[in-house]
């Protein structure tokens, strides 16, 4: 009974002290971004850890002859290891939040911020995984049977070890790929990418996979290893500006200079979509029925380029329909076929075949 009373008194006293300590930490740390984020994350773990430390000290000083003292010490040790693991993971989370708040991505020029956020997020997630693994291993090592099992696993180098290594290969591959992505940064948060023929933005990068938010609000979950081993398109690798194209099929009789003037006028009407870098109209193909006209225009980013291309396509089609309706693609037929008198051409006795020039 005396041990229980002392333990209860110590737990209550340290609980009050932990609340006062965390309140002081929050008050002193609110003036700085880093200390504020870390203090907010460490508040709950500290309030649980300090009473546990006091309880463990009381149990360690108690007599070994008390009933259930070994079980109480074992449970307290397990909870303390879990609490230390929780504290370390919350500390990493606080550092990650501080980095994100220091480098926001909701600005016009966010390339540097996206680089820093991508590196910090992947590295912090990887570090959290290792801390969780160490905490779980520490909890298992408190049991004598688990220590013997771990020693036997480390000592054995047979088929079981190969099987475990082969089974863990995808996890280790994604882990290594995450470190590579954090260092080399082939992708960053909010990058515009084409993955598996889908257009979307990098929404989240975890320790094992990447979430791509597709344009229609679907989510494409891709393993980290995919971005190391397979090719993909990154439209915002250096900057977000991009050139887009539209194609029109028109008749041979269409004059191109009025269409070029109309194209320039349309682009100048939407300066929020056209950045003024590229504007080109060229005939890129022809067939027996029509010609293909390609328009190239540039925009600050891919979303506005899509809107600009749709706007120009609609406006140019309307312009041709209004001013040159006869220049739309059409089929021609000669209705006098079969009515014309036949004209006989003399056939020479000997025709010399044409030869191509020597190469």
Report on the structure:
With 359 residues, the chain is an alpha+beta fold. It is 55% helix and 14% strand. The protein is built from ten helices and eight strands. The strands form two sheets. A five-stranded antiparallel β-sheet has the order 4-3-2-1-5. Strands 6-8-7 form a three-stranded antiparallel β-sheet, covered by helices on one side. Helix 2 runs antiparallel to helix 3 and helix 4 packs antiparallel against helix 7.
What order do the helices and strands come in, and which of them pair?
Layout: H1 2-29, H2 33-61, H3 69-102, H4 111-141, H5 144-155, H6 159-167, H7 169-184, E1 192-195, E2 198-205, E3 209-214, E4 219-223, H8 226-229, E5 233-234, E6 242-250, H9 256-269, E7 279-286, E8 291-299, H10 302-323
Antiparallel strand pairs: 1-2, 1-5, 2-3, 3-4, 6-8, 7-8
How far the N terminus sits from the C terminus, by CA atoms, comes to: 110 Å
Strand content: 5-15%
Which secondary-structure class do the elements indicate? alpha+beta
Query: What's the number of helices?
Result: 10
**Uncertain spans:** 150-162
Overall mean pLDDT score? Answer: 81
Enumerate the strands of the largest sheet in spatial order, edge to edge or round the barrel: 4-3-2-1-5
Number of strands: 8
Oligomer: single chain
Tell me the series of helices and strands, N- to C-terminal.
HHHHHHHEEEEHEEHEEH
From the alpha-carbon coordinates, what is the Rg to the nearest angstrom? 36 Å
User: What is the global morphology?
Assistant: elongated
Helix content: 55-70%
> How many strands, what sense, and barrel or not for the largest sheet?
5 strands, antiparallel
């Amino acid at each position: 009974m005396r041990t229980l009373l002392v333990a209860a008194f110590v737990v209550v006293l340290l609980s009050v002290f932990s609340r006062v300590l965390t309140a002081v930490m929050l008050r002193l740390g609110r003036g700085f971004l880093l200390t504020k984020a870390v203090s907010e994350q460490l508040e709950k773990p500290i309030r649980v850890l300090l009473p546990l430390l006091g309880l463990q000290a009381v149990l360690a000083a108690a007599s070994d002859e008390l009933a259930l003292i070994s079980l109480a010490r074992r449970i307290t040790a397990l909870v303390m290891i879990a609490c230390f693991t929780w504290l370390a993971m919350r500390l990493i989370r606080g550092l990650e939040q501080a980095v994100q708040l220091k480098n926001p991505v909701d600005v016009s020029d966010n390339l540097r911020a996206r680089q820093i956020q991508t590196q910090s997020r992947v590295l912090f997630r990887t570090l959290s995984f290792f801390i969780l693994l160490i905490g779980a291993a520490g909890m298992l090592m408190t049991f004598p049977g688990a220590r013997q099992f771990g020693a036997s696993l480390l000592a054995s180098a047979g088929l079981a070890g190969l099987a475990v290594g082969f089974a863990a290969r995808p996890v280790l591959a994604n882990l290594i790929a995450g470190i590579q992505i954090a260092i080399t940064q082939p992708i960053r948060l909010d990058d515009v990418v084409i993955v598996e023929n889908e257009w979307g933005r990098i929404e989240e990068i975890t320790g094992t996979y990447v979430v791509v938010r597709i344009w229609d609000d679907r989510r494409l979950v891709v393993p980290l290893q995919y971005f190391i081993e397979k090719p993909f398109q990154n439209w915002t690798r250096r900057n977000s500006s991009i050139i887009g194209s539209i194609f029109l099929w028109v008749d041979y009789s269409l004059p191109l200079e009025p269409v070029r003037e109309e194209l320039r006028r349309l682009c100048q009407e939407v300066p929020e979509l056209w950045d003024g870098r590229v504007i080109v109209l060229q005939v890129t193909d022809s067939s027996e029925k029509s010609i293909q006209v390609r328009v190239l225009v540039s925009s600050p980013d891919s979303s506005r380029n899509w809107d600009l291309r749709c706007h120009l396509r609609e406006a140019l089609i309307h312009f041709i329909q209004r001013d040159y309706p006869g220049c739309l693609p059409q089929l021609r037929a000669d209705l006098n076929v079969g009515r014309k008198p036949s004209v006989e051409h003399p056939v020479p006795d000997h025709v010399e075949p044409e030869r191509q020039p020597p190469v």
